[in-house]
Design goal:
Length: about 160
């Protein structure tokens, strides 16, 4: 009997630690309401073509707070609607450390908001960071940061 109880307790603890209980906050099986570009470079090209700002979401597979942010914030329909004005890119820092390093990202989750500008007299584009959030943030704080980034003001962390 003790062995069964121990196995059950171990399974519950493992599911909590690995993020298997991802339905928390928005209902069981909540899915991200954001359409991510296939890659960061494609997101930048799409932003350049459309004039929309970029939402760069840095995460990793082992990040429990990333899973929580995805199920409680990114799965919210209001957030999905607000992100329609952005080009979204998800960057796994373990698979693309060079992108994370070039953006000064050292931990996850990190959300960086960028606006692209044409370099005068050239056909080049430069990116300006207009906001950054580090760590888990609430839906309300994330929506504030989106509004600030869309307006071009710097979002405090």
């Amino acid at each position: 009997m003790k062995a069964v109880y121990f196995l059950l307790l171990t399974a519950v603890m493992l599911s909590m630690c690995t993020g298997a209980n991802q339905g928390a906050g928005t209902g069981e099986g909540a899915e991200v309401q954001v359409e991510f570009a296939p890659s960061f470079l494609e997101a930048m090209a799409q932003a350049d073509a459309t004039g929309r700002p970029v939402f760069a979401y840095f995460s990793s597979q082992s990040c429990g707070y990333c899973r929580l942010f995805e199920t409680e914030v990114l799965a919210d329909p209001e957030v999905g609607k607000a992100l329609e004005g952005f080009v979204a890119a998800r960057i796994d820092i373990d698979k693309e450390p060079e992108i994370a390093g070039s953006m000064g990202v050292t931990g996850t989750p990190t959300m960086v908001f960028l606006k692209l500008h044409r370099v005068e007299g050239t056909n080049r584009t430069s990116a300006e960071e207009v906001g950054r959030l580090v760590g888990y943030v609430s839906k309300e704080r994330f929506l504030e940061a989106l509004e600030e980034a869309a307006g071009g003001t710097s979002a405090p962390a």
